[in-house]
Amino acid sequence: MFDNWGYVEWLILVIDVVAAIIVIRFLRNKIKSKLLEVELRQNRQTRKRRELARQKSAPLEEE
Q: How far apart are CA 10 and CA 3, in angstroms?
């Protein structure tokens, strides 16, 4: 199959492989940044809930 390939076909193959690598890296970085964003948002929400729980329980402890 590869016996009758010329330099143009090999060049196209190399370009396609490089393009695929670039796309995969871009998507991987995008997914990682989104996961980090979600994790930060989740931590912030958890912190808010803890503060609200402390504020609600603080008046009960004072009585």
A: 11
Q: What is the pLDDT of residues 8-60, one digit of tens each?
A: 999 999 999 999 999 999 999 999 999 999 999 999 999 999 999 998 887 76
> What domain range includes position 61?
36-63
pTM for the structure as a whole = 0.65
Q: Where are the alpha helices (DSSP H) in 1-63?
A: 7-62
How many separate domains does the chain show? Answer: 1
3 state DSSP class of 63? coil
Residue 15 lies in a domain: no
**Cα atoms in the 13 Å half-sphere on the side-chain side of 59:** 4
In a domain, 55, yes or no: yes
